[in-house]
Protein 1
Amino acid sequence: MTARPRPGWKRIWRTFQLFASLAIVSGIFAFAIPKIADYHAVWRAIAGMTWVEITSLVGAMLLNLTTYWPQQTAAMPGLTIAQAAVNNQSSTSIANTLPGGGMVAVGVSYAMYRSWGFTNSQVALSVLVTGIWNMFMKLGLPIVALVFLVSEGQTTGGLLVAAVIGVTALLGAVVGFALVLWKKAFARRIGNGLGRAMSFLSKLFRKSPVIDWGERAVRFRRETIDLVTKQWVKLTVSTVVSHLALFLVLLLAVRHVGVSEHQISTAQVLGVFAFGRLITALPITPGGVGIVELGYIAGFVLAGRDHHAGVPDDVFHAQIVAAVLVFRALSYGFQIPLGGLTYLIWRHKKSWRKPVPTKEAAVAEGAGL
């Protein structure tokens, strides 16, 4: 008789993740950041912003929110902008609040897509393509930032290392993706290899092995080629615009708290932003909270350490911390309640519900019949 996995271990792991995240976040905000800047001085820097500056920040933040939706509609033909907004905001809110929230967010996103009539293959393809395009952008940003910094004679060792890592990883990712699309046999081998790995893991958890992953990879390759051929321009443009819109929020936050171009140049802000985007890939705390803030603050302190003459260190550091906290409040904190609202919209918007096509229809659709 096969023994069932004990559900208690899952609960224990979740509890450990929760307390570990709370410990890390508390340590950063209660001990690490106060060593860099006094919170009273930080608040004075924030309170010193004018209504025009606050309005421009909020406007940039709202613009940034809307830039994510076209990418989803490009990766999921048939998805409306309104549905993309609901899906994106709800999943982002979950990922930003729960330990291990990324996996939960994927599950919620999947449930939404299925309720709107999309097939498993369409959902998987959308997740894959948007993930790859976002990864390409995150790995490419340090390279772009380095080019701008070199042109201004402001290279830094940290960004140089990040750029080298980015170039290496980006080339590997592009070559791997191209090989999968280039050769059917290569896609089948990758699928079979992943299937064997998943079967091994399934055996450890006393579950049935996976089958037909090689043929599934071949079908997936054909669907990916069809989608990318038709949508690569929209995917690329929407991905670039979404990252630039987020960068604009950070740049405005830096300038509006009083940090000038002379103290930290726009190219340096881009370099710190590129480094911060790489940090967000580390699932240590929900949404990288604490880790990301500390990374941005450290990056800005290093970037402006030789260029803030006439401004005392404590004032300069307070401005930097203020800029980062404002940026994160708009790009991270604001999305949490907004995601709760969009989740309620999904639950109550019955007119969007559609039955998922039957297996035969889905196969015919994937084959282009």
Protein 2
Amino acid sequence: MESFSQILDSYRQQIDREINLYADQIRRSTKERFGTDARLVIDAFFDLLTRGGKRMRGSLAITGYQMCGGTDVQMITRAAMAIEMVQSALLVMDDIQDRSEMRRGKPTVHKLLEAECQKMGLGGDAAHTGISLALNAMLAGQHSALMVVDGLNVDAERRAKAMSIISQTFVVTVHGQTADILNECRDNVDEAAIDRVMDWKTAYYSVLNPLCVGMVLAGAGCEDTDAIRDYAIHTGKAFQITDDIVGIFGDQAKTGKNPMDDVREGKKTLLAVYALAHATADDAAFLRQQLGNPRLTKAHFLRCRTILESSGAREYAEKRAGECVQAAVGALQNAPADWKKDKIAFLCSLVEHMKSRYA
């Protein structure tokens, strides 16, 4: 029997092959129809999309499909690619709004395009032009993903349901992103506000959307998509909390992200909110001063990281993540009898894997 990691790797290879074929096709057709300038944004989008990763979201789409009895491997692999394109489009937006410069070990799309503008010797503000072109890359990727779904080899009703789920996900994610941005500007952010962002942002587009898309493409009804909701929400929260922990305490060579980013950007994560409420007065004042400081130094960041440890924030976040993992696994205990048992087991293994990211 294949292990969880072997199954996930198999899904990844399957999705990557589809992405590479599609990327080559779109690059060629874009140059033929719109010229070399248009290739700038397309190349930047597919550069991000093809940087690798575990393809967790696409794998969830395949799992949801197979769990509900789907058997068309070619069709669901193409759908999984579309889900990964949705993820990349949202990352472009997220990186612009967070002023992030690195993603998966390389420059973010807007910084990549800024460098291209400088390389070409273009006039004007290269940083602003890079952001403007990145927004075009995001829109091209987003709507290309919807076109892929609209062209899937499945009946019109199932395609329409999948399109509706993805569109709703974009709307919910935008509201989650709005809440996240405004949290950075407010002093009185509590844990409930952090939970809302994790629900509307990470849980929706990272877990609930891909699972539900896969399920409806297999013919599942509302009773099935409703039944997976609790698992998806708890798994999304576990993922976000562990991502925040790894982002600050992990190895940059493995994460592909600068560990100082969340503090420099003023991210109000569960870690930060807990530390502000439980650190000593001096430590809380220092952390509050550094959150959102664009000139954050390495020494000041290291002190902030120490405060996250000494205040108990890291321990608390790990405890919350563990509770979310348990709740997600528990939500599958009463899964519908017709769901494939091996796919339920995969979902349990996936959320339990979250704990190993920071252990």
